[in-house]
Amino acid sequence: MPAHIHRPRPPLADFVDCFWLWEGYTAPAPRERALPSGTLDIIINLREDCLRIFDHDDPASFERFPGIMISGAHAGYFIIDTAPRASVMGVHFRPGGAFPFLGVPAGDLEGRHAALDALWGASAARLRERLVEARGALERFSLLEDFLQAKATLPLRRHDAVTLALRAFEDPTLESVAEVNARTGLSPKRLIALFHDEVGLGPKAFWRVRRFQAALRRVERGRGERDSRLRPVGGAAVAAELGYSDQAHFNREFRAFTGLGPRAYLALEVERPNHVPLHG
């Protein structure tokens, strides 16, 4: 079952990539690795007032959150619960897009999950109640969009240097963070502080995650280029295309972010981007 997707209108469109909703969805496994994207997300469970994040090393152990929470920018994967016939919706922010709505620097949430009422007080629970009671995807998306618009800190804009840096980190020819410093005209210390506050990760960690995301998209495109015998995905070509030092470097980075090598990832035939099912 595909997700319902809603793209917000301006000015939110520059900060929010999409609102999404899965209704009655049953995942292929009871847990999944959620892969890092360099962005923040709001997640809302519409079936029960609970969300669970599992421990990396102890699959039986988990941290329990209320049914509306925020996931900070991560530099590694984390493990989520995938209840059968789930009804879950959320906000997927653009890189550097969440900070005007948080009330705290995005960097305060780096690598963390937090109950949204810790940031928004009782209004977070009231928002979830209204979304549960709403009829249909369109009404839910409209409620969420209006709520975020009211929460925004004005003027709704990024620092110019952060905008330049974000654009630079999507450039496959970029060779170093020092080059980004030169483009923005900021000192390394100033760029790190500003970028961390607005984006939620430091520049080096963000660049590493975004390069991985580009590699993941390239590997996914390669899915249609291989036959049923699972031929190699062309790791050397991907490594060269995206600036990895060699294929071994690319494979190490891919495994660090997914828990799998590229061929093993392809063999899983993952149905949701950035979610790796865990069957064990």
Describe the structure.
- By secondary structure, the protein is α+β, with helices and mostly antiparallel strands.
- It folds into three domains: 4-151, Jelly Rolls (Sandwich); 160-200; 205-278.
- The chain contains eleven helices and eleven strands.
- The chain has helices at 99-102, 117-120, 122-133, 137-151, 160-169, 177-184, 188-199, 203-223, 235-242, 247-258, 262-268; strands at 4-6, 16-25, 31-34, 41-45, 51-54, 62-65, 68-71, 78-81, 86-93, 113-115, 275-278.
- The strands form two sheets. A six-stranded antiparallel β-sheet has the order 1-2-9-4-7-10. A five-stranded antiparallel β-sheet has the order 6-5-8-3-11, with no helix packed on it.
- The model is unreliable at 227-232 (pLDDT under 50).
Give the integer mean of the pLDDT values.
Answer: 92
Compressed to H and E, one letter per element, the order equals EEEEEEEEEHEHHHHHHHHHHE
Reported by name, the CATH topology of the largest domain is Jelly Rolls
The end-to-end span amounts to 24 Å
